[in-house]
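Researcher: Let's do a round of design. I'm pasting the structure tokens now; please hold your answer until I've finished.
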């Protein structure tokens, strides 16, 4: 980390790489042990029930922290907002130079989590999930690609680049396993298919 005239520049690889992505064998083990069940109801869901972009340290919240982690030569101002840098989106292979073109994707979307187990969590548990920097739950990607994903799972949406399907499946499985969330039958089938790309 290098300070320049009141700014901070963080050098990192030019690709989004969340932590603790499991091996293929671990992902297969976890997928086998996930509970398969129909998706639950969206009754009562509100995005605000998953407090997100919590403060991580100083002025930096979770979004800003992921932008710095996943970008290259990211420069921030005194409020921790990214003022310049480079971000590579593994979902579509695009590179961006303005942080406003980048979204922080929740690997397992909040609404998806709600209907697969999170509706019974406490607010503190949902906040931990929505701001998880320890597991591959957050990743910087092209904003409109993230918006096209919405709250869909691998049964109805996949990254545009098939070469990323293996990594995506491993991350999705690991998050669902870590948080004891269920998967539906079609989702299970598609995850196994995506692991064949490993």
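Researcher: That's everything. Go ahead.
Model: Designed sequence:
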């Amino acid at each position: 980390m290098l300070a320049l005239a009141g700014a901070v520049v963080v050098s990192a690889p030019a690709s989004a790489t969340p932590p603790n992505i499991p091996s293929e064998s671990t992902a297969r083990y976890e997928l086998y042990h996930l509970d398969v069940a129909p998706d639950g109801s969206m009754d009562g869901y509100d995005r605000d029930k998953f407090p997100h972009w919590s403060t991580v340290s100083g002025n930096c919240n979770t979004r800003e922290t992921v932008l710095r982690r996943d970008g290259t030569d990211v420069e921030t101002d005194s409020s921790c907002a990214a003022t310049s840098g480079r971000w590579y989106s593994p979902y579509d292979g695009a590179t961006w130079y303005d942080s406003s073109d980048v979204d922080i994707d929740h690997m397992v979307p909040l609404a998806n989590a709600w209907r697969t187990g999170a509706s019974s969590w406490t607010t503190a548990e949902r906040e931990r999930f929505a701001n998880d920097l320890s597991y591959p739950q957050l990743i910087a990607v092209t904003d409109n690609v993230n918006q096209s994903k919405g709250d869909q799972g691998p049964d109805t949406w996949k990254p545009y680049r098939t070469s990323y399907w293996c990594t995506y499946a491993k991350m999705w499985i690991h998050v669902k396993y870590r948080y004891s969330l269920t998967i539906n039958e079609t989702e299970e089938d598609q995850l196994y298919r995506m692991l064949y790309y490993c």
